[in-house]
């Protein structure tokens, strides 16, 4: 798994591309270039003089998608596109209806973060039949040819960073004393959750195998540790049951590896309520949600994996503009972008069951109390108002 994710680069000779604002040439150049499978046949899209981008986000309860939606909408509008932005309340049917409505409203491009990666292939195949292009945003769309590109962070690396933080904080390399850990992984219908899990498990496996790290609940498989809908309440309830079942007085818990911040919130609440030990339990997270930044500053959460959401939207908008200009971007998109941040082009690792989807991957960063000011506040990602309240910088 490790080596597969690190091989990243593809070099093709690509015709020089002209990229200016949000214009679209419909159907002609693509039909010539691509040998599509049946579902991928792209017919002429009637030219209505509009360039419409449909952005479908999973829900508003998880903090980050509100920001992703706002960043994407703002930047596509700045590029002269008409934008339809919708939130699906974590409901598959709602997302399917939202996507159908966007196609009917003349969308030329769909940017989609799937509620369930395997549940929207029909509507996307209809989109492709009508010449609409599809970018999977942050979460891979599974089981269909009707997805053109994937933009995300190196999801495997997220799990590696969380595990490395646990190993360093517990001093596992040098320690002779066995330690105890529990796992709170992500939503099983989110393809990312598996990458986070695998990155963490591959990194911890030497310690789990040697007995330096134990799991008193014995729950370490992906499904049995997963959290439907990344729900804070479900994560809290599950960990409270584990604490009350396996951690009587005197039984020490050293770490809880949580896949993201919404589950980490549940874990810290469970620890506050039901953990009898006096030691500080290491708790990981992901997304740098504001509520969790306060918890890292007050010490109840140890770290989070910061993903610069604005950069993810910048890559997506550049890619979207290039596709709408009738091009088939590859590594060249990075070369000509002038971005001041790292981004790689991957054509090997994100197989959605039908095809390997060409992917642009950004770099996640581990953030703890040690580097939080530098990474989140000095960069202006977050600011504080006069009474110290943290808020996100405008899009
Ligand atoms: C994942 C995403 C994470 C986290 C999680 C819960 O797909 O990559 O950043 O936000 O969903 O929303």
Write the layout of secondary structure elements.
Layout: H1 2-6, H2 28-33, E1 52-57, H3 63-78, E2 82-87, H4 92-104, E3 109-112, H5 121-129, E4 133-137, E5 149-153, H6 155-170, E6 179-184, H7 191-210, E7 213-214, H8 232-246, E8 255-258, H9 261-274, E9 282-283, H10 290-298, E10 303-306, H11 309-324, H12 332-335, E11 343-346, E12 359-362, E13 365-368, H13 372-377, E14 382-384, E15 390-392
Parallel strand pairs: 1-2, 1-3, 3-4, 4-5, 5-12, 6-7, 6-8, 8-9
Antiparallel strand pairs: 10-13, 11-12, 14-15
Helix pairs in contact: 3-11, 6-7, 8-9
Bound molecules: beta-D-galactopyranose.
Characterise the protein shown here.
By secondary structure, the chain is α/β, with parallel strands linked by helices. Helix content is 38%, strand content 16%. It has 13 helices and 15 strands. The strands form four sheets. Strands 2-1-3-4-5-12-11 form a seven-stranded mixed β-sheet, with helices on both faces. Strands 7-6-8-9 form a four-stranded parallel β-sheet, sandwiched between helices. Helix 3 crosses helix 11, helix 6 packs parallel to helix 7 and helix 8 packs parallel to helix 9. The longest helix is centred in the middle third of the chain and has 20 residues. It is elongated. The protein starts with a helix and ends with a strand. The relative contact order is 0.15. The N terminus is likely disordered. Bound molecules: beta-D-galactopyranose. Beta-D-galactopyranose (GAL) binds next to loops.
Please supply descriptive tags for the structure shown above:
binds beta-D-galactopyranose, 7-stranded mixed sheet, 13 helices, disordered N terminus, 395 residues, 15 strands, alpha/beta, 4-stranded parallel sheet
């Amino acid at each position: 798994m490790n080596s597969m994710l690190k091989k990243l680069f593809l070099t093709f000779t690509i015709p020089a591309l002209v990229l200016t604002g949000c214009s679209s040439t419909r159907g002609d150049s693509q039909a010539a270039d691509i040998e599509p499978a049946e579902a991928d046949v792209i017919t002429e899209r009637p030219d209505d003089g509009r360039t419409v981008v449909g952005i479908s986000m999973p829900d508003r309860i998880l903090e980050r998608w509100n920001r992703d939606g706002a960043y994407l909408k703002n930047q596509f509008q700045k590029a002269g596109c008409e934008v339809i932005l919708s939130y699906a309340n974590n409901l598959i049917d709602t997302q399917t209806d939202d996507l159908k409505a966007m196609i009917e409203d003349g969308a030329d491009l769909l940017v989609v973060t799937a509620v369930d990666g395997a549940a929207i292939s029909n509507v996307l195949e209809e989109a492709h039949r009508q010449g609409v292009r599809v970018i999977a945003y942050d979460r891979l769309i599974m089981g269909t040819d009707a997805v053109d590109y994937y933009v995300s962070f190196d999801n495997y690396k997220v799990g590696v960073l969380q595990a490395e933080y646990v190993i360093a904080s517990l001093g596992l390399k040098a320690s002779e004393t066995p330690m105890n850990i529990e796992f709170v992984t992500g939503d099983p219908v989110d393809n990312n959750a598996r990458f986070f899990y695998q990155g963490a498990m591959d990194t911890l496996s030497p310690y789990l195998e040697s007995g330096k790290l134990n799991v008193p609940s014995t729950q370490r498989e992906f499904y049995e540790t997963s959290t439907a809908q990344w729900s804070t309440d479900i994560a809290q309830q599950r960990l409270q049951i584990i604490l009350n079942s396996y951690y009587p007085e005197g039984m020490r818990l050293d770490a809880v590896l949580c896949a993201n911040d919404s589950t980490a919130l549940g874990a810290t609440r469970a620890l506050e309520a039901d953990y009898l030990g006096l030691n500080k339990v290491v708790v990981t997270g992901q997304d740098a949600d504001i509520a969790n930044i306060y918890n890292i500053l007050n010490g109840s959460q140890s770290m989070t994996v910061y993903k610069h959401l604005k950069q993810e939207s910048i890559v997506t908008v550049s890619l979207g503009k290039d596709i709408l200009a009738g091009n088939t971007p590859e590594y060249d998109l990075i070369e000509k972008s002038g971005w001041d941040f790292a981004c790689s082009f991957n054509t090997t690792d994100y197989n959605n069951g039908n095809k390997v989807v060409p992917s642009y991957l950004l770099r996640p960063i581990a953030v703890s109390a040690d580097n939080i000011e530098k990474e989140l506040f000095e960069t202006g990602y977050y600011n504080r108002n006069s009474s110290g309240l943290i808020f996100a910088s405008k899009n």
